[in-house]
Design brief:
The structure holds 2 protein chains of 2 kinds.
Chain A: H1 17-38, H2 47-63, H3 72-104, H4 111-126, H5 129-140, H6 144-168, H7 172-180, H8 185-222, H9 228-238, H10 242-269
Helix pairs in contact in A: 2-10, 3-6, 3-8, 4-6, 5-6, 6-8, 7-8, 8-9, 8-10, 9-10
Chain B: H1 5-31, H2 35-52, H3 57-61, H4 63-95, H5 106-118, H6 121-132, H7 136-162, H8 165-172, H9 177-215, H10 218-228, H11 232-260
The chains are: A mainly alpha, B mainly alpha.
């Protein structure tokens, strides 16, 4: 007995909506990428030579770092200023986001209120942090005050979204049970919502601290916030000193990797988290 | 006697808040932050904005030029994210536990990703300014490096989460390494990859504004130019255009995510 030959090839990948969208997205991204290369404003740079320069520069940067215009202590001080900027804006952002996040969670607040807050935070997040900082700098001048308010705005926008989504993951039964037993709104928050979502909140806050540390470097370079970002900007644009820039790069790299390690440890200790 | 759990919890949270307040106070001293000035600045800034930070007729006439710069920035964000993700996927395949050709490939792949990701995009821009000067290529590579590092990390995790079953099944049928990768691993993690690429495009548009200020290109340069020449109404139009673009792209990528995942 012979098996009948299959008439045609079996469709291994069915034409579902998901598969079609994947292909459309990939094709779209490829076309946009190709198009962007044709319109690239390279300002007449010899690309081949420049790439060779880049590797040369990386060698100087990574293999021969040294400090010249600032001492090691001064560099560490500036690194901690940057970390301090990141920490302050994360804490301020977290405090604001905790309260507004409660009001933006659909299981804790009326629909109209959550819609207003979500719309507002979507707007705040859509403005890049540097533009917030420069916006506030018009009234208070360039410096740590403008940087801290601007970065706090963006942090709060980000954390309100993250927190409110964590609050919404709470079992509805728990809230219902507390409400049925006559607990008022604040009692439900502090007896059910906060204990249940504390580890998620902590984890998101730490993620934002990592982001804010990076942002603080950028604000030092572009918006006069001080810290190690400003030193890097001077080494790059003013002293044209790659070796010194290399030393600063190692400093921020070490700090950022330590933060990332801390975040991973925190997540492991807090048990399974969303990723 | 068993310690009172409520008292213990209370003591722990009290300690936590004392520690946090100490850190906050230290950071305020370290950064020379003026708390009073910070609080009064917010209403002052918004009062000022209602009078001065609004696009006027002159600003609207500049709209075509601003939109042209925006197009440049958005395209740069998309193309750097796309190319970096393709390369990142290749490196992630070499580094992930289930697909690596040899266990020795993992540590270098993870280390490279860590270095690229943990140097901030502004720092990359400052470094690359030495080689490419004030051109779009500086920004392109800065975004490229950070995206690359990020994609390698998340794709290593994604590939390892997918698990070994499908890989083992294909290996049992005698499929070669390339066949396993292209027929099983890549199709399985493609939706996640697309979701991360879209996330990086969103991030890159915001970062591109920042990098543009440093390298004198794109929409960041437009803003910087109007801002430094105190032409705040045109600067506000730039902000408005960025906000609309970011929200549109977020909406689009959320729609794609819903269709793909």
């Amino acid at each position: 007995m012979t098996l009948p030959e299959p008439a045609r090839r079996i469709r291994v990948r069915p034409l579902t909506r998901a598969n079609l969208s994947i292909q459309a997205t990939l094709i779209g991204l490829t076309l946009l990428t190709v198009y962007s290369f044709t319109t690239f404003d390279s300002r007449n740079i010899e690309l081949e030579q420049a790439v060779r320069d880049m590797f040369d520069n990386f060698r100087l940067l990574l293999l021969e770092p040294r400090l010249k215009n600032v001492s090691v202590l001064e560099m560490l001080h500036q690194l901690f200023v940057t970390a301090g900027l990141g920490l302050l804006t994360t804490i301020f952002g977290a405090i604001i986001a905790f309260f507004l996040g409660l009001l933006a969670a659909q299981n804790l607040a009326p629909r109209w209120l959550t819609d207003v807050i979500r719309g507002g935070t979507a707007f705040i997040r859509a403005v890049p942090t540097v533009l917030w900082v420069l916006f506030f700098a018009v009234s208070v001048g360039l410096g740590s005050v403008a940087a801290i308010i601007g970065m706090t705005f963006h942090s709060a926008g980000y954390l309100i979204k993250a927190y409110s989504e964590s609050f919404e993951e709470i079992e509805p039964g728990v809230l219902e049970a507390l409400r049925a037993s006559g607990a008022n709104w604040w009692q439900t928050i502090f007896q059910a919502v906060v204990p249940a979502s504390a580890s998620a909140l902590l984890s998101w806050t730490f993620v934002r601290f990592e982001i804010n540390f990076s942002t603080a470097i950028a604000m030092g370079a572009t918006a006069g916030a001080g810290g190690i970002g400003f030193d890097m900007f001077m080494a790059s644009g003013f002293y044209l000193d790659l070796r010194e820039l290399g030393a600063f790069t190692y400093a921020i790299l070490a700090f950022a990797i330590a933060l990332e390690w801390g975040a991973t440890r925190l997540k492991a200790n807090l048990g399974p988290q969303r990723h | 006697m068993q310690p009172d759990i409520f008292q213990l919890r209370q003591r722990q949270s009290a300690l936590f808040f004392v520690l946090l307040s100490g850190l906050t106070y230290g950071a305020i001293l370290l950064t020379n932050y003026d708390v009073v000035q910070g609080l009064t600045a917010i209403p002052r800034a918004f009062v000022w904005a209602t009078a001065n930070f609004i696009p006027d007729d002159e600003a609207w006439q500049r709209l075509p030029r601003i939109l042209d710069k925006l197009r440049e920035t958005v395209l740069m964000a998309i193309s750097s994210a796309t190319v970096a993700s393709a390369l990142g996927l290749a490196v992630a395949l070499l580094g992930a536990t289930t697909t690596r050709p040899h266990p020795w490939f993992s540590p270098p792949a993870r280390a490279i990703a860590s270095v690229f990701r943990n140097i901030d995009v502004s720092a990359w821009a400052l470094i690359l300014l030495f080689s490419f000067g004030q051109s779009a290529i500086t920004g392109y590579f800065a975004l490229f490096f950070v995206t690359f590092g990020f994609i390698v990390r998340v794709m290593i995790e994604t590939i390892d989460e997918i698990g070994t079953e499908s890989v083992e099944a294909l290996r049992a049928t005698g499929a070669g390494y390339l066949a396993i990768i292209t027929q099983s691993v890549i199709p399985a993690c493609l939706p996640q990859l697309i979701s991360w690429v879209l996330y990086m495009i969103e991030t890159n548009i915001r970062s591109a504004t920042l990098v543009g200020i440093l390298t004198g290109t794109g929409i960041g340069f437009s803003f910087d130019l109007y801002y430094k020449s105190l032409n705040y109404s045109s600067a506000s139009l730039v902000v408005l255009v960025i906000v609309v673009a970011v929200l549109l792209i977020e909406a689009l990528s959320n729609a794609i995510r819903r269709a793909v995942l």
